[in-house]
Amino acid sequence: MDSLDLQVLSQARDWFGQGHKVWLVTVIETWGSAPRPPGALLCLRGDGLVVGSVSGGCVEDDLIERVRHGERVDKPSLITYGVTKEEAARFGLPCGGNLRLVQEPLRAVDWIEQILERAARHELVARTLDLATGTVEVQTAARGEAFEFDGTRLRALFGPRWRLLIVGAGQLSRVLAQMALALDFEVICCDPREEYHLTWDVPGTTFSKAMPDDLVLELQLDPHSAVVALTHDPKLDDMVLLEALKSPAFYVGALGSRGNTAARKQRLALFDLSPAEIDRLHGPVGLNLGAKTPAEIAVSIAAEIVSVKNGVALLQKKEGSALPAAASACLAPR
Questions:
Q1: Mind listing the pLDDT tens digit for each residue in 206-227?
Q2: Which of the four pLDDT bands, split at 50, 70 and 90, describes residue 1?
Q3: Which of 9, 28, 61, 282 has the least C-beta neighbours within 10 A?
Q4: Burial class (CB in 10 A: 0-12, 13-18, 19+), 241
């Protein structure tokens, strides 16, 4: 589940706590390449304020008008847009397209607190809504599960935020951290070198002076985690790679030329890493954008991380780059 939806739940909890009437709107069925997938959330306040989205904007406008004109559902209700050709045109849906939503009044926030707390612990959870009774249950979910709606019960997944560990606190790391924050990643920077950590000042990030390999073990990296080593110091970069490449992290990269990457892989092979684990390393890090400046290099790294996160083939890799097996597989004919 997109962490933006966790922000929607957080705002819903706050508005409810302030005494406002609040409704949650969930996408249950959509069309084609819709802006928001099934399970996406919108929170609607009694005075028309909204956070989150379920479409490109027209549907949100209609939901706001409904509330402002006194249409305030008191139990979970289905709403369908695009049934007729005229409605499809009005709401920007393709001819014959449908957008189905569930709108529910928020009556308690204990289940929201539970989801937010468990997601912060990097757990994956599911919320089940019974449309007949309005009751909500929160349960542990398993990776590979998807949003479900059978006409009477809605089951939506909420997971941890995407997380990026940056090793090294130099100029490139600062720019990459800012970009990752804009991409809604939780950002942690690690650098035990005093001359670097004393000047780290990127708001919204967490900084650690621990040894990078120790921090990787402490964080218990999961499939929502990415690691990129940017220190130019093999003693630090190699140490974190030894642990990160054995973890479930979806992305592990390291800065360096093709020659440096080849040498690094030779060093890693001297330790207890399998060839498959070493092949997970993205190096040289980043997509081939002709990047020269720290900002441009940060763009190339961020773009590669997003590509891997979204399962998109890495077609912009530099010629001769080490290409992890997972990325190679997605380049194969389908």
A1: 999 999 999 999 998 988 899 9
A2: very low
A3: 61
A4: buried
Transcribe 64-96 into DSSP letters: HHHHHTT---SS-EEEEE-SSHHHHHHTTPPTT
Cα gap 173→226, rounded to integer Å: 14
Strands 50-52 and 77-81 turn out to be: unpaired
Residue pair 170/188 in contact by the 8 Å Cβ criterion: no
205/189 Cα distance (integer angstroms): 7
Cα 32 from Cα 43, distance rounded (Å):
24
Other Cβ atoms within 10 Å of 290 Cβ, number: 7
- DSSP, collapsed to helix, strand or coil, labels residue 137 as strand
- The pTM assigned to this predicted structure is 0.72
Distance CA 183, CA 177 (A): 10
Terminal CA-CA length for the chain = 26
Neighbour order of strands in the sheet with 148-149: 136-140, 125-130, 153-158, 148-149
Phi, psi angle pair for 5, to nearest 5°: -70, -30
